[in-house]
Amino acid sequence: MSRSVLVTGGNRGIGLAIARALADAGDQVAITYRSGEPPAGFLAVKCDITDPEQVEQAYKEIEEKQGRVEVLVANAGVTRDQLLLRMSEDDFASVLDTNLTGTFRVVKRAARGMLRARTGRIVLISSVVGLLGSAGQANYAASKAGMVGFARSLARELGSRGITCNVVAPGFVDTDMTRVLSDEQRASITDQVPLGRYAQPEEIAATVRFLASDEAAYITGAVIPVDGGLGMGH
């Protein structure tokens, strides 16, 4: 059956790859985006997840056009990297508000329909940085680590209603965000990865597609790394 899916931040990079993978599997996919022109082939809803009213309006539009959200992939996120002593209050708070509190907003709204239906799939896109830490990314790492506690709490809270909640923790992925790095920076990163390369967005998407499938019905509260071995043991 075709399900109603929402991928936040689904207009580029990992989010777009996830949206395409789920659409290819036969689902109806809505995406949120904040700016620019969204990709064709999806129900694209402009939404800033730091604004509760925009989140509510986005859900109303999705529910009207493709039904209640049965699968939610919380992918939208930002970075504002800076060393601790140079990091402003706004640098810290804005990243937490988008990455963690924004995830809370979209998950809470999706859970309403999932609880009534007694079924649902929630997948949060975290990062290996949330497990390993990264100099200059205390705000980003804190937001991504927070997703783990959030997801595991929800797994316990919602599991009896047939709702699973899992986390995917990508490593370094070949996207527009990482292509701006110099060759020297990219080489330094791949030297740390046992598989010796960046991930492709489609490799992250394949894991999300599995967690959203019937085959993963007995998996909840899991943190699945897709990082080429970078974070093993964490």
Automatic annotation (TrEMBL):
Gene3D superfamilies: NAD(P)-binding Rossmann-like Domain (3.40.50.720). GO terms for biological process: fatty acid biosynthetic process. Keywords: Fatty acid biosynthesis, Fatty acid metabolism, Lipid biosynthesis, Lipid metabolism, NADP, Oxidoreductase. The keyword Oxidoreductase applies. Pathway: Lipid metabolism; fatty acid biosynthesis. NADP(+) binds at G9, G10, N11, R12, N75, Y140, A141, A142, S143, K144. GO terms for molecular function: 3-oxoacyl-[acyl-carrier-protein] reductase (NADPH) activity; NAD binding. Residues 3-176 form the Ketoreductase domain. The active site is at Y140. Belongs to the short-chain dehydrogenases/reductases (SDR) family. Homotetramer. NCBIfam families: 3oxo_ACP_reduc, PRK12826.1-2. This is 3-oxoacyl-[acyl-carrier-protein] reductase. The gene is fabG.
